[in-house]
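Sample A.
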Amino acid sequence: MNVLKWLNEHFEEAIMVFLLAAISCVMMAQIIARSFFASMPWPEEFSRYCYIWTVFLSLGYTIRKKNMLKVAILMDLLPRKLRRSIEIIVNFIMLAIFAILFRYSIIYTGKVKVSGQISPAMHLPMWIMYMSTVVGFALAVIRMIQETVFNIKNFNKGVETTLEATIKEAKQEVEATGRDFVERTGFTGGDI
């Protein structure tokens, strides 16, 4: 059960961190190679493809973190039940959109696979690149279902406003930074 919990909480971000680290390493190797030896033909393409995978994986991540672009200030002014109702309606609309995009991404990726197209520098089958859309939209559908179920289960519970969430997050950051500072320096403020 711990593995499923970890996957639920960190799946997208773990892959995104790996991909962004891979981009950094490969581009650094390209800079070194270009400076001292000869330029490699594939790092730019590799980095572009990793970045595209990162973008599509971030769909599920932003839904899970509740960071989707929205006008929350207006929602904060509404009564709690009306706000939850609107959130659920928006969740169903977004779920439908992601499901449609998922369906068409499968169709288009299948067409690319049948065409046998390969990438110019790395000579990888292009359907691997287009799988980023399938995986990204699938994760978005899963995360949107989770978000909808959460909003339905917690329909009558209080809703945290944008201002409250921002203040809470700021306090957590300040506390974490303070703990790190004390651990590194041993300075607690009582030494003054």
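Sample B.
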Amino acid sequence: MIKTNAARLLDAAGIHYELIPYEFSEEDLSAQHVAAELGEDIDQVFKTLVLRGDRNGIFVCVIPGDFEVDLKVAARISGNKSCEMLHLRELLPTTGYIRGGCSPVGMKRTFPTFIHESALLYDYIYISAGQRGLQFKISPQDLFAYTGAGVYPV
């Protein structure tokens, strides 16, 4: 298994994680598919969404796989009046990641990050390790600490 840049960054920071491979499908990059492949509850499989606020620019929300981002909540917690999802064509040049492989760890720049508070209910969660077909199994407390994330409220 090839280590991703995100994995090397967590190694350098002394953050414990496991790399968990899974079979991905170009036709279905959903978190539901990832959860099914991992045999895990969808509530523990988190997706990384990149948004653009009208005042503060790019920020990141990490939310449970079966949730939809609430743009009003996301705008409020990020200090924006409004926000929208980053256009797909902007994802790679902005973050260094592609759809289905976007991790809150190791983006090209450090962006304000907000992790859904439900992550704290679990000993571990799954997030993308920076490429399709590979997830981190990581403590949410470690992820909050490493990313300096704020809480995305229920």
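B remarks: The two ends are 36 Å apart (CA to CA). The chain has a mean pLDDT of 95.
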